[in-house]
Amino acid sequence: MRIERVESGMRADAGATDAVEMHPRHRVGILAALIALGLSAAFAVTAQHYAVSASERYLQALAGQAVPIKWESLTLQRAAYATGTTLPIYGSSELYCCGVPALPSQLFGAAPTGFRTFPVGRAGTGDLFFMQTFAALGGDLRGKKLVISDSPGWFFGPQGIGDAAYAGNFSPEIAEAFAFDAPISMDLKEAGARLMIAHPATLSDQPLLRLALDGLARPTALHFARYYALYPAGRLLSWVHQMQDAADTLSYIREHPALRADASNGPSRIDWRTTLAAMTSLSRQRVTTNPFGFPDATYKRLAKTVRPALARFCAGTDDHNGTRMAYPSAWARSMSSSAEWTDLELELRVLHELGARPLVYSLPMPGTYDDFTQLSYPARRAYYDKYASVATAAGVPWLDFEEHDGDRYMLTDTGAHFSPRGWVLAGRALDLFWQGASISQIRSSLADLTREVPTPAAPPRARYCAGPKR
After folding, report:
1. What are the backbone angles phi and psi of residue 420, rounded to the nearest 5°?
2. Residue 55, C-beta contacts closer than 8 angstroms, at least 6 positions apart
3. Of 115, 92, 100, 176, which Cα lies nearest the Cα of 362?
4. Contacts by 324-328 with C-beta closer than 8 Å and gap 24+?
5. Spatial distance between the Cα atoms of 6 and 163, rounded to a whole number of angstroms
6. What pLDDT does 51 receive?
7. Could you write out the DSSP letters of every residue in 129-161?
């Protein structure tokens, strides 16, 4: 009886095995599908590497152009890091603005000191967008130098750059890479996701991304489960979009044959003192109609805005020390609590985790104009102190150009746009950073250069003011 039961069990087991055994044709089909998938992935990765390699030849031709493909996708940025001789600069409209002949893309166009620059960004970009970009670039940043150019105005509002500006630069591809591909710690992803979902309009037509970010932003067991359930589809979607980015980059290059021309339009060497003297003279020549150092065309455009300041200038009632007008308490509260500081802190944490080597700087405020507004120097100094505190806490080298707050020919307007003189000084900092100078050496060298070529003296008051001083 025992033998019969054993034999019966063996027959039952054999029948069960036969029932689940896969038909040979099915096994071959699945194997073929896996092979096809593997070959497709290998082809796509090879194609992406080819796109990065091919793009390297066109970086300088694109360096001075404000074209979205530079900041909305990643191929050109990866190409810049891959060269080993390119310094990416992440900033805003100052990177291309105002007809300045000493922009980094021009100053370093022929690699006079061994490197070129690759500006990334446009008006409205900010630290939250760049945080996502750096996380998406991931391992491409390890050991690589880069520069972040912050504009003071980003930090003046409670929301930072605001919803409209953020939405205008939002990139689904970069956001997906942040959510699904970025090789950063989970706590950084969670913190980033919380900041990103605070701009819901950018996610309204991105359901998978929105659900994934929501899962990261609220790290409960249920939300984590939802995120990880979406993760495979998200990785696939991100991968597809990055492959499309590579293809689009190559298509853009093919469709713009002029990019093939040699775009090395910078000097073959840089005599910094001579260059600064020439650009300072040019900056001064561009200003004949106002005492604030703004080029004539810019001043004409801003005439209504700056009229009260001009009236105070003509009356001799500057408020540099903050003793004539009330301290701008509302502005100071908004500035000190701006969401942009959190964005900057998170951005620098991401760069630290990825092993990047950043230099961060803030453009100065236009002190020669602000002295005739409520933004007296004590108020402006609060901004500089805050910037220094955040950057120091992150352990990164930083500049705030506070010593040029009152340099009449450093900026071109009330916003954050360097003049020709300003860009030469900033360019000297970039050059020293690339060459491996410490931040104290950079500051010392800039101070020496400024002493050698000081800003021109203020013109007489009567030149801009009708009638006698009141």
Report:
1. -55, -45
2. 75, 76, 78, 79, 249, 250, 253
3. 92
4. 325/374, 325/376, 326/374, 327/374, 327/376, 327/378, 327/379, 328/374, 328/375, 328/376, 328/379
5. 74
6. 85
7. HHHHHHHHHGGGGTT-EEEEEE-GGGGSSTTTT
Residue 5 clears pLDDT 70, i.e. is over it: no
Tell me the C-alpha to C-alpha distance, in Å, between residue 9 and each of 17, 66, 198: 12, 76, 63
Contacts of 351 (CB under 8 A, 6+ apart): 134, 141, 146, 358, 396
Which pLDDT score is estimated for 43?
52
DSSP conformation letters of 282-326: HHHHT--S-TT---HHHHHHTHHHHHHHHHHHHHT---TTS-SS-
The structure tokens listed for 314 are: 């003509």
Q: Which amino acid is at 401?
A: F
Q: Which of 3-7, 242-246, 366-370, 387-391 has the lowest mean pLDDT?
A: 3-7
Confidence of residue 33 (pLDDT cuts 50, 70, 90): very low
Tokens of 274: 């001579």
Query: Cα–Cα distances in Å, from 349 out to 132, 195, 355, 433?
Result: 12, 14, 10, 20
Cβ 250 vs Cβ 54: under 8 Å? yes
In this predicted structure, the answer to whether residue 61 has a pLDDT above a threshold of 80 is yes
The dihedrals phi and psi of 55, each to the nearest 5 degrees, come to -70, -25
